Amino acid sequence: MSHFIQNTLSGLKILLNNNDQMKIISYEGEVREITCSFNSEAVTAEIEKFENENSIKLPEDYKAFLTLHNGARIYESIDDGEKLGDGLEIFSLDEIKEHQEIEYLSEHGIPIAHLLNDCYLILDTEKLKGGDPNHLNILEFTELSSLNLNFEIFLDRYIISQGEAFWSWPIYTAENYYRTR
């Protein structure tokens, strides 16, 4: 399997200005200013140590991300020059370890990212062990559901959708959209 994660991130970075910022269009025509920041890469030894400590082999697409950036913040909103702390926060390996200490997260798998309000991306360890390529779950408040995606496809779609919750789009129809906003 070839991974396109580097192409996705390179495409995003091309759109950023010299301050790692850009304007995006959001729901219903709202224009927002955002920033993206990327940690330096993780070395293979760090990834292997994490895998050994957790008795799990991380998915190849996620490891491809880590070899580029050991954590990132993508589509973090800016208001009057201040970062608002929203968007997608992809954890570094050390941050994953910290979040694994939170029982309600670790009981569902390996928490790898935080997004929106109280949502986490979780690698489903049972699916990983079973070879299921759709190993990414989302924990929204207290409800865990499968995204039927891997990390690479999730990240690509998140970037294409400019940080919007694309996974919930199918539930909004012309009949209910206006009642739910």
Write the layout of secondary structure elements.
Elements: H1 5-15, E1 21-25, E2 31-38, H2 44-54, H3 60-68, E3 72-79, E4 82-83, E5 88-90, H4 93-100, H5 103-106, E6 110-115, E7 119-123, H6 125-130, E8 136-140, E9 143-149, H7 151-160, H8 177-180
Antiparallel strand pairs: 1-2, 2-3, 3-4, 3-5, 5-6, 6-7, 7-8, 8-9
Helix pairs in contact: 1-7
Give a nutshell description of this structure.
With 181 residues, the protein is an alpha+beta fold.
Task: Note the run of SSEs as H and E.
Answer: HEEHHEEEHHEEHEEHH
**Uncertain residue segments:** none
* Oligomeric composition of the shown chains: single chain
Distance N to C terminus: 40 Å
Structural shape: globular
* H/I helix tally: 8
Write a concise keyword list for the protein shown above:
single chain, alpha+beta, 8 helices, 35% helix
Explain the overall architecture:
This protein is α+β, with helices and mostly antiparallel strands. It has eight helices and nine strands. A hairpin with a 3-residue loop joins strand 6 and strand 7 (119-123). Helix 1 runs parallel beside helix 7 (151-160).
